[in-house]
Amino acid sequence: MVLLWGACLPPPALAADPGSAADATPPLRDYAIDMWTSRNGLPHNSLRAIAQTPEGHLWFATWEGLVRYNGLDFIVYDRGSTPGLLDNGVGALHVDSDGALWISDSRGNVLRRALDGRWDGWPRQAPAPEVLIQAMRKDSKGRLWLLYEGRGLGYLSADGEFVFEPPPPGVPMGMTHTWMEVDAQDRVWVGTLDGLVVRGTDGVLRRVPDDYGLSHGVVWPYRAPDGVLWIVADGALYRLQGDRPQLVRRLPGITHATAMLQDRHGDLWLGTENQGLFRVGNHGVEHMPDARMPPRGRIVSLLEDAEGSIWAGANGGLYRLRETLFSSYTHSDGLSGDYARALLEDDRGRLWIGGASGLDRMERDGRIAPVPLRNRAGKPPSILSLARDGAGDVWAGTFGDGVFRIAAGSDRVSRFDAADGLPGGNVRVMAADHGGHGVWLGTQRGVVRIEDGRVQVPATPGLPTGLVTALYSADDALWIGTIEGVRVLRDDGVQRLALDELGGGRSVFGFLQIGNAMWIASDRGLYRYRDGKLARVGLEQGMPVDTVFQMVPDRLGNVWISSNRGVLRTDMRALEDVADGRSPKLAVEHYNEIDGMSNAQANGSTGPSALLRRDGTFWVATAGGVSTVDPLRLLRFRERLPPPAVIEGVSVDGVPVRWQGTQRNSLPGGRRVTVDYVGLSYLMSDRIRYRTWLEGLDKGWIERGGQRSVEFLGLPPGDYTLHISAAHPGGHWSGSGAAWSFTVEPRLWQRRDVQAGAVVLLLLALVALYRYLIHRHETRSTRLAQQVAERTADLREQAERLLAANQEKAALAERLREQADAFERQAHEDPLTGLPNRRAFDEGLARDFARSQRSGQPLCLVALDIDHFKRVNDTWSHSVGDQVLREVARLLAASSRDSDLPARLGGEEFALLLNDTTLEEAELVCMRLRGLFHSQRSWAGIDDLRVTFSAGLALLGPGDRTPTLLFQRADKALYQAKSEGRDRICLG
Description:
Layout: E1 3-5, E2 31-36, E3 47-52, E4 58-62, E5 65-69, E6 74-77, E7 90-95, E8 101-105, E9 110-113, E10 119-122, E11 133-138, E12 144-148, E13 152-156, E14 162-165, E15 177-182, E16 188-192, E17 195-199, E18 205-207, E19 219-223, E20 229-233, E21 236-241, E22 244-250, E23 257-262, E24 268-272, E25 277-281, E26 284-287, E27 299-304, E28 310-314, E29 317-323, E30 326-329, E31 340-345, E32 351-355, E33 358-362, E34 368-370, E35 383-388, E36 394-398, E37 403-406, E38 413-416, E39 427-432, E40 439-443, E41 446-451, E42 454-456, E43 468-474, E44 477-482, E45 485-490, E46 493-497, E47 508-514, E48 517-522, E49 525-530, E50 533-537, E51 548-553, E52 558-563, E53 566-571, H1 572-580, E54 589-591, E55 610-612, E56 618-622, E57 625-629, H2 634-638, E58 645-652, E59 655-657, E60 665-668, E61 672-679, E62 689-695, E63 702-705, E64 709-713, E65 718-727, E66 738-745, H3 752-828, H4 838-855, E67 859-866, H5 869-876, H6 878-894, E68 901-906, E69 909-915, H7 919-935, E70 949-955, H8 963-979, E71 985-987
Parallel strand pairs: 60-66, 70-71
Antiparallel strand pairs: 1-26, 2-29, 3-4, 4-5, 5-6, 7-8, 8-9, 9-10, 11-12, 12-13, 13-14, 15-16, 16-17, 17-18, 19-20, 20-21, 21-22, 23-24, 24-25, 25-26, 27-28, 28-29, 30-57, 31-32, 32-33, 33-34, 35-36, 36-37, 37-38, 39-40, 40-41, 41-42, 43-44, 44-45, 45-46, 47-48, 48-49, 49-50, 51-52, 52-53, ...
InterPro entries: Diguanylate_Cyclase (IPR050469), GGDEF_dom (IPR000160), Ig-like_fold (IPR013783), Nucleotide_cyclase (IPR029787), Reg_prop (IPR011110), Rev_trsase/Diguanyl_cyclase (IPR043128), WD40/YVTN_repeat-like_dom_sf (IPR015943), Y_Y_Y (IPR011123)
GO cellular component, one term: plasma membrane
EC number: 2.7.7.65
């Protein structure tokens, strides 16, 4: 949770007015944090300085060398590299107005890397001390000021001479310093452990006057990009006005600042010795919680890159804070658990959050507290659904513990369960009656109504008797979603909507009425029912996923759609155009973890799983907490500048060559030329797309996908320019891009004079060869004609024999292939039902077991047994029993996806292997199959014959070390189902 600390003074104007929510500085909650350590390629975990050069590369100073980062790779420069450093311990970095990078080290040496890649070095010269240079800054005279650790100040003059200025007596420069800044008047400000020191325009180094009001303690000076000099001292923030510091804000509890940064919003970031990271701005004083960014000691350096991300170098690694569109609440923010299922906002603006670990309530100030609900075992119930009735009471449906009602105002809790007539099992969805007189519940056994404290089970014909996954009360109708489509309850009866006839939709997860249209979220996209007609917007119309859970329009014309693979956003008008057939495709933006969601798996078949709150924000329940987005901030993230493309290296026949600079490279011909390049973006570096154009050879741009190098072999002589452009996924290509010009020189035989002489010699040789060949041809032609005549007869006879033998072999091979195919089928197929047999099932189980263990994807196994099958054989004959088995196999195959494996294990025993399927999804599959058995009115052509099955369902778990153990758990659950009365499904 972000901590907001008050201040003794009103907030200063640290940033411009926020204006609209789209331009306002977001709270720290809206920043995602990424971390790198030596495990990710850094040579050392302590980063003393961070800099970004104009082309976009990031540079890090460590104790084990200088590091260049392009978003994908860390390139380390040390004493053993080319070019090499004078010492591995890098102390400070500084980018001057020319874009050159200055590097200092722990022995007082200074290096400079120019924009064209040239390196220059200035080894320490006496009397400059041989110690760490902690900071570097350039003044208007071109002097590079150097802060020597524990020794004082010096500078490197424009002509490359070191000048050292020992501190005068009484000035605390003989101890460790904190930081140094040079202001617009070329005054040098040095923060020490014993106050602030300044070298004035008169060249004299002295303590600041006592009437500045700064204590003799740790002081940190910082010059912001706008030229303002900030000072942090003794838990307070000062701003230099003229020649005197002005107190801006007290910072209670913040001690020992070790880094400072002003970002593009005008907010100030403070790194500390051991308290982590703070930000001072429009939101007050914010602290990045340790749960999200462990302090790990001192924060040594801060930088805002060209894309607005904040980089923090600490003693324990490198951090990057990037602003995200979504923010999330998890267990670390106060939720009882991370698995959230249902959301509800009450009339007081409070957010109720139901999940696997109970019910929580978020107050309007953001505080989260659990709601004290207890089941009969004294534990918090698992909440599946929430609803609010006309009286303002909040209802909570549970997983096996009935329904709780929390009275408005008093928070008094009452409970309804089986003793009150409520069917056992889950209450996945609920809906308050449109007239406000009661609450509808969706259970495993159909719909139930609670009114005036009494549980009522409607007896209207046509209502579903199985699992209900969605409910919506609108006008005079109750819309009911199941795993077998939609039912609509009205006074005159029940209407069924056949979704499967349009795109194959079956499972329904949500309803939303907009005007006179009802929108339906299903396992085949969105359906719209209007004026008695169905329309569908699914995968074929541009939806990136099949299964969607909840559709929520906001007040700006956006539609937010939750799914198993993140949140989708589109435009309401565009959605209507596709549903009406005016447009063939829907443009959809897809958001997931990289956009700030703690988990991209939203939840469905519970509800409401997503909502729009009164403040206009969209909220969604996920498997990793609750995520939210303010649509007003969407414009900030929709368009990003394309990443600048840069060339990182050129090699000829594998040998690096110098390519930077204004001079055109001259290359010998016939060589292999390799060019490495990258797009310098640090947000989605691995998803950047590239294209190249070799001017002088290619006719236009050639797209390279994610390829980060291009190779040319044997280029013909001529002048060339290689252009490189980069783009974010779905974004625009960078305009100018990178370019490298070079010339391929002709080889010896490619020179014109050599080629002319070679042509003359070739013509003479051809004349001589021609005359020789004519003579030889005349002398040998007669002999060859005789030999041809003699051998033609033999060859014709041999060809006929070979043709006959080849035809005989082809016929034999075809017969062998047909026999092999038949044997393979017999070995893996059940002859009665056509399903895979036990052998094929065992092979498939072993294969999918190994795949699930490698990938971590869920795997479910269902063992089925036809109830009382012997009675079918004894009563109706074995031929009827065989027909029943065939019809069971047909239903099992029809209910399976392409990735599933149905099989007959023997007799009346069957199995179903479900890949990439969670336990809840597998239970829905079993319930759908059970409904198909119940709905079949005749078996084997016999009207009085009813067939049911018992099943055991098991999810691959950590204890299943072998496929046999998984099968044994499913088989054990099967026998439990039999022993409990059959016609049921038990979990193993």
